[in-house]
Amino acid sequence: MADANTGTSGLIRVDVSESALNPAANQSQVNWAFYLYERVSAGSSFQLTPKGAAVDWLGIVNLWTGSYTFDWRPAGLQGALLASGSFTVNHNPDGTSPSVTIRGAIAASGTTACGGPASVDQGIVLTTLKVIPGVPTGVTATRISDTQVDLAWTQTNASNGAPTATQIEQRINGGAWTPLITMGAATSASVADVANQKTEYRVRSGNAAGYSAYGTSGPVYTTPADPTDAVAAKNVSLDIDITFTPHVGYVEHVHEVWHGTILAGVTTWDGAALTSLAAGVSSYTHAAPNPAQVHVYRIRAKAGALVSGYALSNSVQLLAAPAKPTIPALAPFADKAAIFRFPWVHNSIDSTPQTKRQVRYSTNGGGVWTTGAKTVDVNEFLDFAANTWAANTAVTFAVRTKGSYDSGADGDASYSPWSDNVTVTFKTLPVATVPIPLTGSTLTTSTVSVNVGFAQAEGATFVKTQLELKEGATLLETMESVIQVGNTFAYAAQDGITYTVRARVQDSNGLWSAWATSTFDIDYLSPVPAVMTLSFLPDTGYGQIDLVIAAPGVGQAAAVTVSITRTIDGVTETLVTDYPVASPMTFLDTTPVTHGTNTYTVTTKSALGAQSVVEDDLVTEECRRAYLSKGASYTTVVAFGANLSVVEGLGVASDTIQAAGRIKPIGLYGVETTVQLKVQSFIFEGFGSTIPQLRDILLLPGKACYRDASGRRIFGSVKGGVSYKKATRADLSFTLTETS
Question: Which domains, ranges and CATH numbers included, belong to the chain?
Fold first, then answer.
């Protein structure tokens, strides 16, 4: 709206506005109005005669021309609409506003008080008109490689709908659309892709007015993925079933199955694919392939001109003669009087089992063969009857087998080559006897000693014997020995019991005899058992065993020898063996455990070897002293213990080797263990051994035994010394390393 004065009493006004917009036509409608107003309330006395007036769109068109008459005489302010109208304005091609200025003008009124001539201009800036860009057309996607796709499209826009932005979306393998790129106005783009995909693209353009609909490309395919796990297998119809695992990400593909044959290690492929399988099919049966050939297959995926790599199957031989049989290792000698089994392994090439076999043998090293018939047999062995060959006959065997392949009329070409020859010499088994103890005899001792007899008709020699001691069906002890005389069982036979000894012998041919047996009785008087009294000597750490062995009473034999063992934590050591009996008797154990349990077993024997056994425990609870023993039977001993300190070092054998290329050295570990004691004690007069005694034992040659109140009992080498405080006081320190 704009005003202009027309003298002292009048005012003209132009009012301009934009009304209807038509973006599609790139046009706006402009409304205008031209007014005359009285601006002084004391009006003149004039009444104007018609005067000229005009309204123009400057430089473009005259909008109105006319005249007006205005009566200035009525009291009060007055106004009049002289003219109004509207017109259509075409915007610039890009939708921006053209120059629009409206001018209203009047002619002179004849009096300066009433106005004229005068004019007023009113400009207006119109709304910029924008439309949404047109839908991109001709959207194309071109595969450049498995990693690049080029996109192109055409813009279809009105002049006032030019795009300022472009959005591209993609859809992979028929999935959902997802944003890919937002960029400025364009008609092409290069985007990344990956193998084994079907990708579609859509493009839309946008500006301030919004975005167009999408223009969509056709699909782009990249190289399909290789199949895997190709397997070929012969079926019962002697066709070949081929299976594989597909990995293509889209359905628009096929799988080609190619066939080849192998001859002398060389594969020849057919000139064209055997078949093409639709998506979702992963097996195929090759019907009636040539049974005389070795078949192999390869499978690849194909999408148009794009092909994957091949998956190669195993080879399949439908029917072929087997390879020569394998003969397992046979003993060089066999019992002529027993059934002899000649075994082999059928080595199929075409995976069919043995259907026939033919066996031959020779008794002159292969100079002349006795050949059996071609026999239907699925067993991979042939049994020959006992005594088929005489003793000392060396027989050479060979075999050939047949599977399902037949060259015609059961000809030799249907069979494998002959196996390697194997020779077995047939022998007479050795004979075992048990002359001692003689069957039916009675032993008057608890010790069972066995002599074994041996004989072999062809002069083979004795190698070893196996022995069993049984009480009825209960097996008491077994033994294997390389001597025939004086084989003694550890088991102590009991008075009044019947026992059986079984023995068999092996000869220098490796053949075992049948078992020979001897059954006998035991009848003896048990010797007088010892009466045992145990005590611990704290000054030396010895265990004292006092025995009283009485004269025999009724039903008893005199004890002539005594043996003593001591067991600590399951480990048994012999202290006395077959010592002549006297009564009373005292024995000293120089190395018992000084804080723990020592189990002593005393065995008395009669002149006939019968035994009586007694057992008792010596529980020691020494809690102050430690002992170090050396010398013959560890009879030199010292005791100490004031302010005793023991540090135990433990280790396992190990070593390291430095090697080039390794950040850390290589560790080597063995099974050898190391136990090392570091012992310290304060020595004073009146408790334990004297300083000279301690010094002397450290200088005494030989292995040492250390025992203390913890229950330790360790044997090994010792090194140490005495540090004097006074003439009768010193510090003892030594290190003992356990040795075997």
Answer: 2-124 (2.60.40.10), 137-221 (2.60.40.10), 228-317 (2.60.40.10), 323-427 (2.60.40.10), 431-522 (2.60.40.10), 526-621 (2.60.40.10), 630-738 (no CATH)
